[in-house]
């Protein structure tokens, strides 16, 4: 047992330095015999232990942050997730979300792994900083999603609750201002959650599953076998209309689909890709 006298001022100093709780700081100083650097290391190790202990916990809350380059040709999205909504509103958590996004913008990582390895201004990596905040807050914190998308024109949207974000890649604007139209399409993606841009982007396994489900339903309805294929094809077309972006009914004007809306905005305008992220989905 340490015989070093730990004062309230010592505890407060360590708390200010690390952001850890008072009792955690006192215990760390006692264990480290008053050595501040050793106490900081102990608190960081505690953070790593907390992170490991909570590794299986669900992270359904958090914050989605987006940055689009000044020329509109690149967009980055970071979804930093935590376990509970109150933590997502804590200043330290929100500051971390912005720091991770800033690191992505400055270093242009291609993957979450590359983003996690970036060294921040204080000399710690993104991963180490997340681990430390996990220890301080006592909740699992992870980079749930990271996207780095480039194209002719990127438009973004973040839902008001901060838990959903969309990046959309447009082509064929030909100099037209598509800011408002782009936002409308991004909001369409947020609301309608399409599985792909167009028919040819749907995963073959999804198409096969939809056809098989349709056939089963048709047979259960007692339709003749010779009609099954034809009716199933019709149901697949209905799936494309409901679930692929360009073929969806435009939410703001049901008289046209999204493809028509884009063409009306600027002849030849289309969407080539999108990324939709929703925490807790």
From TrEMBL:
Keywords for the protein's UniProt record, in alphabetical order: Cytoplasm, Elongation factor, Protein biosynthesis
Matching PROSITE patterns: EF_TS_1 (PS01126)
Keyword Protein biosynthesis: yes
Record bears the keyword Glycoprotein: no
Protein localization: Cytoplasm
Lineage: superkingdom: Bacteria
The protein's role, per its UniProt record: Associates with the EF-Tu.GDP complex and induces the exchange of GDP to GTP. It remains bound to the aminoacyl-tRNA.EF-Tu.GTP complex up to the GTP hydrolysis stage on the ribosome.
Xref: NCBIfam families: tsf
UniProt name for this protein: Elongation factor Ts
Organism whose genome encodes this protein: Pedobacter terrae
Encoding gene (name): tsf
